[in-house]
Design goal:
The chain has 716 residues and is of the alpha+beta class. It has 31 helices and 16 strands. The strands form 3 sheets. A 9-stranded antiparallel β-sheet has the order 8-14-15-16-10-11-12-13-9. A 5-stranded parallel β-sheet has the order 3-7-6-4-5. A two-stranded antiparallel ribbon has the order 1-2. Helix 12 packs across helix 15. One of its GO terms (cellular component) is trans-Golgi network.
Amino acid sequence: MSLEDEESTWLLALEAALHDGCDVDTLLSITRGRTLLDEHRAQVWYQCLGGGSKISNFSEFDEVFDLPEQSIIRADCQAIVSKLGNAEEDKVSIVCDVESVVSHYCKSRHLQYSSSRQWPDLLTPLLAAKLPPNRLYDSFEEILEKYIPRESSPGSAIYHLLRLLLLYHDPQLSNYIDSLKVTPEQFAGPWVRSLFACVCSLDATTALWDAYFQERDPFFVLFLTLVILINARDQILSERSGSAVVAFISSLPSALTPTDAPDFCSLARYYAIRTPNTFRREYLSSIFGSVYLSGGSNDDSSNQVTGGLPVQQALCLPVAADELLQSTAIAQYPPEHSQIGFFVVDCRPAEQYNSGHLPNAFHLDSTLMLEAVSSFNTALQGLFIVQREAVQADTPGCGPHLCLVGGGRDEEDQLLHMVAAAMLQQHTAYVSLARGGFRAVHKLLEQDVESELAEHNRESCRVCCSDSPSQDNKEQQQTTITVPAATVSAASAVAATTNVDQQPQDNNIFNKFSSISSVFKTKSADFKERLVDYITNPTGSEVLGAAVIARHASPEDTGDLYRGAQDIFTIGEDDAASKSGSGAVERVLLAEFLKRPSTVTAFSCHQVRENGYMYPSYLVLTERGIVLVRCVEGKEKYGDIVATRSLTSIMKITSKKKHPDLITFKYGTTKADGDTVITDMDRFVIPNASRATQAVKELILQQSENTTSTSAATPQ
């Protein structure tokens, strides 16, 4: 199906759905990832914001404009309408409608109006969509209470969370911004309060909101901000003053155009699926929601504590025990809808680790930081090498995201926080802390800890013995550490409070974890042995055999914002042909299809469509080509074959310069004069993309060698 046919098909489906009054899920299945037409935008936005199931209270407005700030409200409303270019005879009624919306919201919520809230910026795109007054009010109310933080003044929780997200994905950039004494609210405050409406053109804002409301993710604004910062990291790192950094970052969104919105949102999803989800449930209720939930306008949500962990005191992102175990377990169960894979680092003292630990946990004794600093640094570097090799080898239960596990008590975990701080100071990305530590993991697996934990000993396990007061006191006496004053000061500076509340039992997680427990146990001993080898011979390249992956780039490999790409390799072939899937889509059982004799290997990925939306998929390599199998939503055992590509049709494979897992395959033919004609392309987000591209390259070279051998053997 051509792009033109696909465009007309979804528009017809949308019009039919709107006419029939479909539910939100059906509407999203049609519109997700697409830029809406002006005539559809008002209805789609209203449905996505929950208007279809909402009982409006706008009819209760008393039509009395007597607020103390009424003159300011009226002036701001007049300024909004003047920007939209309405006919003069319509302006008075529109101003009255907008003033009614703002006044009723202030009265019903007992709020004091201020222009600094940037409500006019939020109302402008809604007015441009031509929503009637009652729907205008409902949509405005839903945006404020679903997507705008209750508290967005300097020091609020939303900005601390933004810093934690940047620290997780790019600690070097985060530390540099901190060193200039620049705080996120200095540049991101207007973006958060207006969903970028105050800095982007109206056309760019509406295109961005098309995707934003379809995401239905209150935290999506943070990932959009993350994209802006990371894409501009080189320029930010070149600035030498805080004021210059703030001015530069603040100006970046103004360059966005409507055509940039799909790529912008696609990259934001790229980071969202690579971020642990615990922070969402930890901080959602304390940051977003109606002012009624916080007791009125005087609430300061930045001081709220969620899960025992104030946002301001968090050293890095938290990971709950159930997410840690679930992420580890789903690595064995396709399709892989999440791109999170944890490498568990148990930082408890040796005697605690030896009394029970996760089978896939790598032991890094945090007490080495005090007792043998050089040994700790060597062990830390060995840890990074073992992790990298485990990820490249697709070792079960080992991923690129480091999750540090402590004992679960404040008095036990000061050194754990120092380990995390040391990693972050070395600009190590993807560092998180297990919330509740080993205690939370132990309680989640308490149905059968003997089989689920390696080397578990009930007699010496601290969690098992915690019910005994005498044993607890004895343990505290045994673990008292005398720390130099300077070290105590450093530990206090990075210490964060953790929570050991019992996690709800998830039988599905428990069963999956149980089924792969034996696999982890066989790998654990191997990791320990390899780390010992590295510590005793840190310069011996043959010990770990870590491969160095070459990166090829040139100064010319630059592009527009969010669009820059650099070559990985380019291959041209004569007689190239591309075979795309056409006609009826073939549905297959994933387990059977991936084990076919003709399948060489397969990679879990997300296909990125032209509209920027990503679909969980598998990139299946065969001896003759590539088969793209898209996972069927709601039916995890099945997949649809949506395209097949011959190896000879692959002309070029490129990656995003700053997003190496975002891969583009370009297909085409080679003319007689040697010129390449690109006829089609696919884009994927592939974990460990270098392995996938290397596998494709090897297949192409192998096919080329076979063709050459066949030609040489053919009699002339």
